[in-house]
Amino acid sequence: MFSSSLRQRSEWSPALALFSQSPSKWRETNLLRHDLEFTVQYSASSSPTYRMVLISAKQVGTDDATRRIEQLPKDGTDKKAVVLLMQGHDAMSSFMRLQIHAGQLIGHLDALRRPSTTGMNGLAQIDRHAVQKDLLRHCVSGTPLSVQQVDVLLGSVRHLRELANMVQTREGQETICRLLGDADGRSLIEHFTNGPKFT
User: Fold this and answer.
1) SS3 category, 26
2) Same domain for 32 and 93?
3) Among 9, 70, 81, 141, which is least packed by CB within 10 angstroms?
């Protein structure tokens, strides 16, 4: 289910059409404390309900957003999340709209709703690795890294935190440039140190 209140928040309006087109059959309803709710049937005895609050950059720090985030732990379930529509300046806002239009948000939510057939741990590992790879492709200022470059990077680090730590040292930066080539290495380093830039 998704909350009708999303219709009053223009930054989320592109997602509404995607909800209606989704094969997972998202239903619109009045949700008072959160924006998304769905149940995942993992087994006959395990079907947790997930609840999410959707927040945009302009809502961060407002009384309404603070209240909704504070109420989230009180809803009686341990499966909850806050989804932040990426914050930043005008270029970042364009990137947010692009993400929604491309259907990535709904696709990730639909993937989360699907029941596990291979066991939760295996699925979580696969999804975490796929998301990490996709995220890393865009951790550059400019053109995304190739899948091959991401594979090379992930072959030398265990997770993105380790890569972020490498950026803080000269040796780490030299290693990144050696693995990716100087231009792409510098682009990744700039992204981690100065934030994203869009051209």
Assistant:
1) coil
2) yes
3) 70
